[in-house]
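User
New here, explain this?
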Amino acid sequence: MRTIIIDDERLARNELKRLLEEFPRINIIGEAANADEAIPMIEEMEPDLLFLDIQMPGKDGFELLEALEDRVPDVIFTTAYDEYALKAFEFNALDYIMKPIDTARLAEAIQRVEEEKKEAQSDDKSEPKEGELGVHDQVFVKDGEKCWFVRLGKVRLFESMGNYVRLHFDDQKPMILKSLNSLEERLDSKIYFRANRKHIINLNWIDKIEPWFSGGLLVTLKPGEIGPGGEKIEISRRQAIKFKDLMSL
């Protein structure tokens, strides 16, 4: 992994480089003492990973990330202060390591990065789905004595209920005997997004997006054409990364 170290303390950079010698997959391609040095370096070299200090002269680590115009690399924050942990994960940091850095803790953080990379590569290799259902497809739903013939675009939310899935459309919430995983395989992934283990949301029905705990997001769905709507659904931290990639230009 092509890596840049950003820290205003030269001794801290040298110590981290020494520790990283034990990890052959980490290829250090540059180092910077502040955001002004780091930003053009990141945009030119396009690293996979940053080890980023938070408190630095000029822009801090968070302001550095906000200043990046293009793809933001994976980030491991390295800092002597623990009060920034929540904010760090709002920026989708993969880890937050306290100084002085312990080798075992560093190994854990790098393993997390490698797992994220493997999952991303697996997603990239997935084959297009046959028989995919999109917003214009009509589906027949039967719940007890009630039946509906509903256009999928009207379904704003799919909610797992054990062996069943509850569909939210208009003011109706029928359940079908199907797992959320099997349903996800049939739905158009450009429109229907797996927010967490219990919910799939229709991206066209998102009304508001807010930062949430541990780097996740909280989305509020639009009111239904008939009925209340307005459900609030948490997008997990891992899915929030995919969500931001999907929604970016």
